[in-house]
Amino acid sequence: MWMHELTGRGKGPLYMELYWMLRRDMECGDIRPGERLPSKRELSARLGISVTTVEAAYGQLLAEGYLTARPGSGHYAAKVEYPAPAAQAEPELHERTPAGEQRPGESWLMDLASGTPRAELFPFPVLSRILRRMLSERGERLLQATDHSGAMELRQAIAHSLEEMRGIKVSPRQIVVGAGAEYLYGLIVQLLGRDKIYALEDPGYYKTALIYRKNGVACEYVEVDEKGMSVTGLRQSRARVAHVSPSHQFPGGGTMPFPRRTELLAWAMERPDRYLIEDDYDSEFRFSGRPVPALQSIDAEGRVIYVNTFSKTVAPALRIGYMALPQALLERFERELGFYACTVPATEQYMLSEFIQSGQFQRHVNRVRTYCRGVRDELVKAIEKSQMGPSCEILAKEAGLHFLLRFHTNLSDYEIRERAAEAGIRLLMVSDCRRGANGKGWDRTAVMSYAGIDPAQISEAVERLAASLHDG
Amino acid sequence: MWMHELTGRGKGPLYMELYWMLRRDMECGDIRPGERLPSKRELSARLGISVTTVEAAYGQLLAEGYLTARPGSGHYAAKVEYPAPAAQAEPELHERTPAGEQRPGESWLMDLASGTPRAELFPFPVLSRILRRMLSERGERLLQATDHSGAMELRQAIAHSLEEMRGIKVSPRQIVVGAGAEYLYGLIVQLLGRDKIYALEDPGYYKTALIYRKNGVACEYVEVDEKGMSVTGLRQSRARVAHVSPSHQFPGGGTMPFPRRTELLAWAMERPDRYLIEDDYDSEFRFSGRPVPALQSIDAEGRVIYVNTFSKTVAPALRIGYMALPQALLERFERELGFYACTVPATEQYMLSEFIQSGQFQRHVNRVRTYCRGVRDELVKAIEKSQMGPSCEILAKEAGLHFLLRFHTNLSDYEIRERAAEAGIRLLMVSDCRRGANGKGWDRTAVMSYAGIDPAQISEAVERLAASLHDG
């Protein structure tokens, strides 16, 4: 079963650290439903902690229904269905749904937990035109495999656009194209190895932790403040690799200021086997202030792997992500992982490459940004004008496709989410994104992902939400 | 470094088992170029074998250039470029190559080591027609994400075609679509776990071993005879999962007869944690005899994961593979890995789905099969009529896109390959596909992958090959 150690460095009590460790293991299936847990005595011996600490953690898990106790037989993981990750989940297509039809937020008046942009925003007419032309002009070459790292023309287009939009200078050879960021993280684990600990942001994006763990990597969760991952926390961890999103942390919403970026890089440079994975997933959506340079662009020693995707900026069904590898890792990648075929169909690669090269990608991003700013402004205004206006606070709204809404209320996070749900509003709370014993100071705060909502529903939805929370 | 144990169960001497273990570790990068190896004494102590055995293995590796010795300092892994996997490698697109143009077999008169079918065989006109119609009829729904296991209409089409073509009865829900078989193997490792040993065929497909190892799995290599993986060998291993290709073993070419299939299944059923991965990669290309039922179709207890791909049957750039999961694993898959987004773009999924449902996929496969049989017959006839006809033998030509050519010669495998290369013919030898100390009885045998060759070159190529081997 689990071989973790407790660090004893979380801010909360030790039993809560154990609580989170066990809960995470159940949520990601490392402890299976119905599995018997070690006895309190056994676990206390194994982890070198007191029986009282184990008792407190088991008690909390029992109270919350994660465990069941059978008298004389011990504790068992509950046979529960863990809720699907709410944060930015792909909408599901059910068997009964007509082909190709998805129903994001089905049955919700407003789904503020899904970050998928509205279908109306997809640049379908342009992409369709490019595709038709390609079918005539390129013919069966569209069915020939590309280079294992992606078609060179797409990698050139990406490298060029990275320089223009993010100040990142890389050769097209350093770009590796793959079927989405999720796939690329798995590839990065194969490249950097499973024999080291990876630091993840806490609170952080639900899927990131699952992906690393399912790829066999031990993770430590490092506290995030309004400036992003705490470098002090990182230094206290045993991590050799840190996964960070400096442009726009999810869900905290912070943008990492320059001094902390250099601190992070300094951490990486202290040992030859330290690396940073820069998750730049929605850097394109910055609404005001100076664009912040990518970590990769100030990395002089080749310690940053930059990862981004077109799922947000173009369409979720276009499964194309890419990473920019530092020169030194590129050689290792070619030698050890160069045997993999590219996971993206050639047609999609050429289509995207023309979309970028023609300047239409940039124009599309600008259009979506303007649209999203409009939706955000409307939503913010509606909240401020509503009944709940005086008793809530809007945070971190200058970047990315979500902002934070903090409620000044006596309701718990659980109650807020449940009451909102009853009113037809799907909310994700920052506390839902907690992974470790950290994450204090984020209570009663909702992650408002607005890219997919219907602006016509805003006033009704906000009114209903305000009413549902009124007497809290 | 490495933590393998020698099994001492290979057919050859123990030092050759050590030789292969070290060579594999170097080839897949577990031992890095320039890395210092343990001293003979140290390694002998660590593995519990005699210093003489280590000496003999180091000696062989030194002689072949895998190691270099520095007097007084020890042995180092050579800084060599390991040849790219020749077997069925995707053709590379070089930076200098015009966009979209690949050059399979560039500079070779004939490339018999690459299994990629000729571009002329791709069903481009049909696919292009389907795609154009979809762009008009489906519009922006093409840019919406599908279910995480793939679009239901594609999974229905695959399930239906599996029943018709392979006698496999599964619900569409059991089908998981992903960006190629390579990606799916990684997903299977995440599903079945890294804490068990996987048995691989020896000799076997180069990439399969690399994929499992890079996914952090310990592998044992089990001997293959003309009937496929030896169940006796499998029983002597510590494996819990076996990856087999019963329809058509690569490179051995054998089709596993029914009795051995049931033996394999019996092995799997003896323990609840044993599974078989059925790699059915080119089952569509059987030229004569009764079609052999898939392992999956005779599996009553849900121990077989069936994997296939459309890279061979449609086109290599269409990165679509799929697996059929047994019911019990399906639940685990949904619970533990259901958070992953599908890696195949929606457009490709719908296109392929229409291609299958309209019956055009089946017609296309029939056409390619007829074409390939014609090429095979021509190549076989040319070989038999040539100067080398009397001194060689053709084996395993009734299934799949390669056959074996055994030379009765005094030349070594190395010499055969080098002489052929000088004559402009790229050959892959069965011995190139060996992974462990097994694989005896496969000497002087070339793997003739003919799907990608130009029939117009056959007579010249065979003549040159025969001449180059003449005085051997």
Please tell me about this protein's structure:
With 472 residues, chain A is α/β, with parallel strands linked by helices. Helix content of chain A is 37%, strand content 14%. Chain A has helices at residues 14-27, 40-47, 51-63, 124-138, 152-166, 181-192, 206-214, 231-236, 258-269, 327-337, 346-357, 360-385, 413-422, 458-469; strands at residues 67-70, 74-77, 110-111, 175-178, 197-202, 218-225, 228-229, 241-244, 275-279, 304-309, 321-324, 392-395, 402-407, 425-426, 428-429, 445-449. In chain A, the strands form four sheets. In chain A, strands 4-11-10-9-8-5-6-7 form an eight-stranded mixed β-sheet, sandwiched between helices. In chain A, a hairpin with a 6-residue loop joins strand 12 and strand 13 (402-407). Residues 83-105 of chain A have low confidence and may be disordered.
Strand order of the largest sheet of chain A: 4-11-10-9-8-5-6-7
Based on helices, strands and strand pairing, what is the structural class of chain A? alpha/beta
What proportion strand of chain A? 5-15%
Give a quick account of the main beta sheet of chain A: strands, pairing sense, barrel closure.
8 strands, mixed
Overall pLDDT of chain A, averaged? 86
- List how many beta strands of chain A DSSP finds: 16
Terminus-to-terminus distance of chain A: 42 Å
C-alpha-based Rg of chain A, rounded:
23 Å
Oligomeric status: homodimer
The total of helices of chain A stands at 14
CA-based shape of chain A: globular
Helix content of chain A: 25-40%
Low-confidence stretches of chain A: 83-105
- For the largest interface in this structure, which chains are involved and how many residues does each contribute? A-B, 83 and 83 residues
Q: List the secondary-structure elements of chain A in sequence, H or E.
A: HHHEEEHHEHEHEEHEHEEEHHHEEHEEEH
